Amino acid sequence: GLAHGRHCHRQRENGSGSGSGSGSGSGSARPQPPEPSLLRFLVCPLSKRPLRYEEATNELINEELGIAYPIIDGIPNMVPEAARMTHKKPPAEGSEQP
Amino acid sequence: WRLWRCRCRALLSRPAGRLWARRGLAAGPEMHFGFQTVTEEERREKIYQVFESVAKKYDVMNDSMTLGIHRVWKDILMHKMNPSPGTLLLDVAGGTGDIAFRFINYVRSARERQLQRKLKHHQNLSWQEIFESYQKDKFNSLGDSQVVVCDINREMLKVGKQKAQHLGYSEGLSWVLGNAEELPFDSDKFDVYTIAFGIRNVTRVDLALQEAYRVLKPGGRFLCLEFSHVSNPLLSRLYDLYSFQVIPVLGEVIAGDWKSYQYLVESIRRFPPQEDLKAMIEDAGFFKVDYENLNFGIVAIHSGFKL
């Protein structure tokens, strides 16, 4: 429908291969994975240790500390305030996967 | 907030007792927000709100307040940086992307000149080279240059990202929401670190400078473009008049926000002058620290190297 059309348009505008979400077509929270080049330098701001990208929830996970940073609109939110503890359930908006 | 406390409790086992003080979870020391006195936490919140509020009108306001001269200042910063293709830039507090876009333009032209020079010397191309020249990607129009824009404010980043899409910037550009005092980047990674009109809004400048030092490669350069102090008394008076009488009014008329621009003007007055900032940069470990006044000190570019 109209929503799907809008997603297609956004995908075209995204340029360098970062717009490959699952096309769930539901609202504005379509997951956009981060730029692969970014993952080379991104670390946890607290421990400065490497992160793992979790495609299912579109988060960057620090296994050691058990925290996950969300990626919102393709922008990783790398501030502790935005992180969630991984032993809790992921927030509702992150689980709109088909 | 509960998450913060859980995390801090978990981390207290590390030798990070100072994490409490750093986080300012207690009432915390008093700091300035413009001419007001606030706690560290209040200051962060207030500044976040200022930029959340002005984000959409940020560029328009910059043009009106500085009569477009901020563009020249940013161009001068880029020329001073003189990045060559392949440079990795971290632009902190880079919100709406002004420095990032200039960087991309600069390395793109530098790369074009580089390729032209190469072609001049290779009048007889091999079949391989001819084949490659038909593949735009291979030519690597930016020469592997990259800029990461880091800002703590989601609204500013949103505006920046939209601008990038609108102006056609996509290659070699990425956006991260992060805190200058606690960067989410690995050490010794970047060739250049810039912070343009942002360091004034950082609550713990010393921490931001330490983080800048950490993420730069050895040989990397720190560049800071910021409002500074005018020593000439007559000019200073005129500048004050303009700042306190005209700017907040412009803020109200154009952005519907007097208070934010009042904060802007006050924060400029409260920020350490050239020599003091130079000393702070040296304290963070940088060498060959120097500054260049633009427009009699209304703005200054500080530079330092990690050796």
Automatic annotation (TrEMBL), chain A:
Keywords: Mitochondrion, Transit peptide
SUPFAM superfamilies named in the record: Trm112p-like
Presence of keyword Transit peptide: yes
Region of interest (Disordered), residue spans: 1-38
Domain of life: Eukaryota
Major site of localization recorded for this protein: mitochondrion
Location in or out of the cell: Mitochondrion
Coiled coil: none
Pfam families: Trm112p (PF03966)
Gly residues: compositionally biased ranges: 16-26
Composition-biased stretches (Basic residues): 1-10
PANTHER family in the record: PROTEIN PREY, MITOCHONDRIAL, ZGC:162634
Family statement: Belongs to the PREY family.
Protein name in UniProt: Protein preY, mitochondrial
Gene: Pyurf
UniProtKB/TrEMBL annotation, chain B:
Alphabetic keyword roster: Methyltransferase, S-adenosyl-L-methionine, Transferase, Ubiquinone biosynthesis
UniProt keyword S-adenosyl-L-methionine, yes or no: yes
CDD domains: AdoMet_MTases
Entry's Gene Ontology molecular function annotations: 2-methoxy-6-polyprenyl-1,4-benzoquinol methyltransferase activity
A Pfam family: Ubie_methyltran
Gene3D superfamilies, A to Z: Vaccinia Virus protein VP39
UniProt record, GO biological process: methylation
InterPro entries listed in its UniProt record: SAM-dependent_MTases_sf, UbiE/COQ5_MeTrFase, UbiE/COQ5_MeTrFase_CS
PROSITE patterns noted in UniProt: SAM_MT_UBIE, UBIE_2
PANTHER family with a match to the protein in the record: 2-METHOXY-6-POLYPRENYL-1,4-BENZOQUINOL METHYLASE, MITOCHONDRIAL, METHYLTRANSFERASE
Complex formation: Component of a multi-subunit COQ enzyme complex, composed of at least COQ3, COQ4, COQ5, COQ6, COQ7 and COQ9. Interacts with PYURF; the interaction is direct, stabilizes COQ5 protein and associates PYURF with COQ enzyme complex.
Record function comment: Methyltransferase required for the conversion of 2-decaprenyl-6-methoxy-1,4-benzoquinol (DDMQH2) to 2-decaprenyl-3-methyl-6-methoxy-1,4-benzoquinol (DMQH2).
Name of the protein in question: COQ5 protein
Organism: Falcunculus frontatus (Eastern shriketit)
Lineage summary: Eukaryota, Metazoa, Chordata, Craniata, Vertebrata
